[in-house]
Every structure is written in C-alpha cells, then in structure tokens.
Amino acid sequence: MGYLTESLTTAIGLILSFDREVQLTIWTSLYTSSVAIVFAALLGIPAGVWLGISRFRGRRLMITLLNTLMALPTVVVGLVLFGLFSRQGPAGSLGLLFTPWAMIAGQTVLATPIVANYVLSTVSGSDPRILDTVLTLGAARFQACVQLLKELRFGVMAAVIAGFGRVIAEVGVAMMLGGNIRGSTRTMTTAIALETSKGEFAFGLSLGIVLLGVALLINLLLNLLQQR
Fold this sequence. Notes:
The chain is an all-alpha fold and 228 residues long. 78% of the residues lie in helices and 0% in strands.
C-alpha cells in the first residue's frame, strides 16, 4: 500500500505542477483524437443518414458490414495502414509514417464506423414524418437531410462523442503508426504502456488519472445527450 500511496501522491504532483512532458503527451492525445473525430464525423454522419433513409438491395449487407467494422481490431488497422504508409507502400512517398497524421488516419478509420452506426440508429428510430413533411413543403433532398439532422442533433452529437471515446483510449494504432516518439507522437495510452514497462509507474499513473477523467467526462456527456 505504501508503494501505491507514494506513486499516487507523485502522480497527482506531476499533474498539479503542470509537468511539461505530461502536458505535451496529453495535448498530443487530444489533438490527434479531435482531428480524427472531425474527419470521422464528415464521413460517418452522411453515411449513417444515407443508410437510415435509403431502401435498396444490399442495404442489410452494408449494415452488417458496418456493425462488423465497429469491432475492427486496432492492430489490424495499424498493420494495414503501416503497409500503406511504409516506404515500400503505395503512400510511402508522403512520409506520413511515425507522424501525428498517420495516427489521425488510423483513428479516423476506427471512429467512422462508430459514428455512422450511431447516426444510423438515430435516424432509423426517428419519426419518418419529419423527412416526409420537409419534402412535402418543397425542400430539396439535401435540405431535408439537413433539417433531419437538426431535429436529431442530440443523437448525432452522441455519435461523435462515442467515436471520440473510442479513439482517445486506443493504443494499437497510436503505437504502430506513431512510433511513440517523445514530443511528437507519444499519446497518453502509449506513454502509459512505455513508462510503466520502464518502471516509471508514477508517471504512467498520472496519465492514467487524466485519461480516466477524460473518459468519465465523455461518458457523462454521452449519457446526458442520450437522455435528451
């Protein structure tokens, strides 16, 4: 117990003293995850709306595929994108491997199916008269979809928050594509794994406390939006 108490005291001290390395690691996590969720929202929201309001052959198969992608292992995403961004890969000339943008790409792949699926569920569970009424009033299809999203904004926001919660806590993609480079691609999850293995338990614990706080905040927002 003495070891844990001492480590916890040191961890809280690192947080309250605004340790530069702790701050930089937190910033890298928040930055890459935030940018990734923006891209995921731009891709996932239209996909979810389209699947929710459309009726076509193969729709059920696409929904099943989308559900499968929600459980996509992070190491598989990291492996595929590592091959894509490596020097021998098709996008090797871009020099993205072991940069924040490679991590963002991987996190976008992970978050997009989650956002799309949540939006799909929200649209499917909404009153179908919303879209019909807007179309009857003379709105174009795109305008009708925008109005539908306004009506379902809390569900859409919940989808985005759920996607953010997925990527802020993942470690596989960040480690494989970012390389865990100090001051550049080291995130809270990768730093926790590395520093703990080095014996720097207090440092890892400080990041764990911050990560737990972020996860708690995300879940509180998600529950609040779902109640709305």
